[in-house]
């Protein structure tokens, strides 16, 4: 896709950069992250006057109180907070940053591409395990934790992509993930849905996962490979291959790479077991079964 350079007017650019620098500096300091997130969201949503009135003990309506307290990530829960195997030490910081990312995307400023890409890129440097240079993160991206994601240089992740890092997710340099793609790093047992296995899922350098595709946990998308739209990947896509379908299989080798690519096979090799990430739960952990199903097979 051929693109041209676009820039904001000078004054708008200066204001945007000053704001991003301020938030970045505060997140890099010893200041409490929860407080930084709360105050940033209050101002982004234009609620400073009402928030200060509430903090001063003045009367506010129940609905207003719920809205104002919701800027503080300590007053919210995320789905991943309920996962028993999460890293209890790393999760709180990731939760606060993820809350800022998600609530920023709920503001009108999230549609200002020149501003929003840089703001999310700054947040990714604090949230992800690793984040390379010149990455572009578009609106509506979701993730499980964030701290189990490693992203290389010049990566582009488009609108409404889900990055599941319940296990571990690595995305190589110059990779592109198109709108509504889902990359998973965990699987559920077929019989016991509460039993979860985590894996390392990999997208290689220069790979493309296109629109609405799903990559199953523990798969590897090879270097310079392409996954076709709405495909379901259940095995490793070899380097330089174009794979598509449900389940996806290699259809051809990208023109020009025939001499270095592996030959096309009937099906993608599944190496999920090699990328399994083991974990242990504390014996005294209090859990619950949200389904309450009887998993006993019928008698013969």
From TrEMBL:
The terms describing its cellular component in GO are: cytosol
Where is the segment annotated Disordered? 269-300
What GO molecular function annotations does the UniProt record carry, in alphabetical order?
O-acyltransferase activity
Where is this chain compositionally biased, Acidic residues type? 280-289
Keyword flag Ribonucleoprotein: no
Q: Where is the composition biased (Basic and acidic residues)?
A: 269-279, 290-300
Q: InterPro entries per the record?
A: Hexapeptide_acetyltransf, Trimer_LpxA-like_sf
Which superkingdom does the taxonomy of this entry point to? Archaea
Q: Which UniProt keywords apply?
A: Acyltransferase, Transferase
Family per record:
Belongs to the transferase hexapeptide repeat family.
Q: PANTHER family of this UniProt entry? A: ACETYLTRANSFERASE C18B11.09C-RELATED, SIALIC ACID SYNTHASE-RELATED
- In Swiss-Prot or TrEMBL terms, this protein is called Acyltransferase
Q: Which organism is it from?
A: Halobellus limi
């Amino acid at each position: 896709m051929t693109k041209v350079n676009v820039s904001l007017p000078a004054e708008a650019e200066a204001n945007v950069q000053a704001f991003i620098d301020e938030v970045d500096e505060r997140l890099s300091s010893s200041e409490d992250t929860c407080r930084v997130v709360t105050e940033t969201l209050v101002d982004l949503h234009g609620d400073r006057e009402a928030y200060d009135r509430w903090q001063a003990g003045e009367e506010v309506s129940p609905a207003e109180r719920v809205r104002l307290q919701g800027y503080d990530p300590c007053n919210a829960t995320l789905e991943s907070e309920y996962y028993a195997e999460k890293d209890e030490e790393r999760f709180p910081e990731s939760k606060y940053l993820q809350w800022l990312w998600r609530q920023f995307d709920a503001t009108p400023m999230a549609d200002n591409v020149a501003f929003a890409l840089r703001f999310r890129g700054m947040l990714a440097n604090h949230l992800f395990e690793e984040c390379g240079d010149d990455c572009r993160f578009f609106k509506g991206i979701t993730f499980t934790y964030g701290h189990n994601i490693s992203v290389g240089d010049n990566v582009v992740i488009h609108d409404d992509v889900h990055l599941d890092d319940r296990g571990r997710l690595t995305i190589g340099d110059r990779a592109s993930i198109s709108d509504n793609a889902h990359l998973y790093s965990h699987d559920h047992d077929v019989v016991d849905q509460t039993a979860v296995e985590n894996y390392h899922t990999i997208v290689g350098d220069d790979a493309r996962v296109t629109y609405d595709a799903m990559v199953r946990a523990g798969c590897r998308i090879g270097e310079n490979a392409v996954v076709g739209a709405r495909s379901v990947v259940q095995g490793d896509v070899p380097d330089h291959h174009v794979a598509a379908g449900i389940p996806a299989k290699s259809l051809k080798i990208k023109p020009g790479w025939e001499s270095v690519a592996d030959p096309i096979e009937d099906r993608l090799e599944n190496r999920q077991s090699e990328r399994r990430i083991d974990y242990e739960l504390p014996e005294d952990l209090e859990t619950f079964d949200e389904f309450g199903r009887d998993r006993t097979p019928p008698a013969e």
